[in-house]
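Extended Data, panel c. Modelled sequence:
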Amino acid sequence: MPTTWFQSINPIVVVAFAPIMATLWETLAKHKLEPSSPVKQAIGLLLLAIGYTIIAFGTNGLENGQKASMWWLFALYFIHTIGELSLSPIGLSMVNKLSPVHLASLLMGVWFMSNAASNILAGELATLLPTAEQPVHSFLGYQITNLTDFFALFAIMAGVAAILLFCLCPLLKKMMKMRK
């Protein structure tokens, strides 16, 4: 399978599962079980951590130059895209709903600028991938010597972010009610 085909996984999953996710949230809302917007975003971050954990597991024990099964990468993309469906539309909706009317356009731009900033950060973090020229990298004391360590770092960062957001959810929910 050509590696370029993996670029198709995200849009296919978005198109196929966006209606399913929307139906899930509607069904949960009808039964008064729908999680708050911050909880949905925390779920998205948790799915990000799970995806990275899966790919870290899939690369465990691989030597330099060895390839993991494409199913590990497919699972990563699938889970990350479901997480994206939990986070991205909810974030856009929150910006629109909670912004003062005169700042709504500006704050929507800030939302998209944060996406751009995260892509820059991702590029910087990608330099931590061990190479033949530099086989060991360190990030805040965490040693990265192989693909498993590299992906585990992202699983840890996303997991910590998810836990922090879950802990902040009651406060955020309270603040959102005050804003309405």
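The mean pLDDT is 92. This feature is highlighted in the accompanying rendering.
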